[in-house]
Amino acid sequence: MTDTFQSKDIPIIDFSLFETNQSLCVQQIKLACENLGFFYLKNHGFNEKDVEETFHRIKLYFDQSHEEKLNYKINEHYFGYIDLRQEVLDFKTQKIGDHKESFNFSKFDDNDDPLAQILPPLFNEKKSLFSSLSKKCHQLCLKILQTLAIALEIPQSEGGKHWFEPKHSYDLKSGDCLRVIHYPPTVVNNDQEDIRAGSHSDYGSLTVLFQKDIGGLEILPHNSTEWVPVPIISNCVVINVADCLQFWSKGLFKSIKHRVVFRKDTRNLDRYSIAYFFHAGSDVVLDRIPSKLIPQEDDDNTKYITAETIKMKKDQVLE
Prior knowledge:
Blueprint: E1 12-14, H1 17-20, H2 22-35, E2 38-42, H3 48-62, H4 66-70, E3 80-82, E4 87-88, E5 101-105, H5 121-124, H6 127-151, E6 177-183, E7 197-200, E8 206-212, E9 217-220, E10 228-229, E11 236-241, H7 243-248, E12 257-260, E13 271-278, H8 307-310, E14 316-317
Parallel strand pairs: 1-2
Antiparallel strand pairs: 2-11, 3-5, 4-14, 5-6, 6-13, 7-12, 8-11, 8-13, 9-10, 9-12
Helix pairs in contact: 2-6
């Protein structure tokens, strides 16, 4: 990537090609993951009415009193409510915490009950909505991994296009998390730099992001020094490669820094987003991917590395 990279250069991939022209779909996703690690996906299979209803429900939740939200604060499994300024994604340079609040959902069982938390009433009465979104995000990520396995030409004897799937089963203990986020408005103080979400990369395999109305997401392309906006495109989700997949592919697929900034035209407006963080099972050993496109040299230091090892504690919490 060069410093001339622009927003218009972020790939937009029609995922209906997965069914109608799989070879083209594979080629486009492979190139996007190799060159940038971020891309838009349209015709992704999510019901737009359900997504709109989810955004409506999370707005109702974040509009509640601070005291009510604290009744379901983040638990020992890292699920629940995270307060404004509590998280510091770029702890090396940020002076204060991110200007956002969020709620993390665990995975759900077959009855749409969360596996590792008690939900607030506003979420619990619509738990099937959130359970469905969580599981559909997971299924989408499995399909994307199928395209990457095909692109990597993994032999059928090794699992072929399904090589990644057992390692990312929804039933496995993992760091998977559906997160809903509210970025409140602010009056910018010129004496102190403020940011909605500090610079960071994600630490799983893939992330699915739903944006609505208000932008602010920016990416730092590989080998670039210029931040590039990721505008909202109607009926598209944003997909990005995360750290575990970059490590697993020995750097073939790129996990890059991104952030959410205040824009002058929207800093006085609320921003909402939904993200699904997709992980391999915590105890899954990151075996060599059996692909001739990935170096196969011996490396004793990586023989027993698991997905949990790669899940570094980047989210620093202010005491």
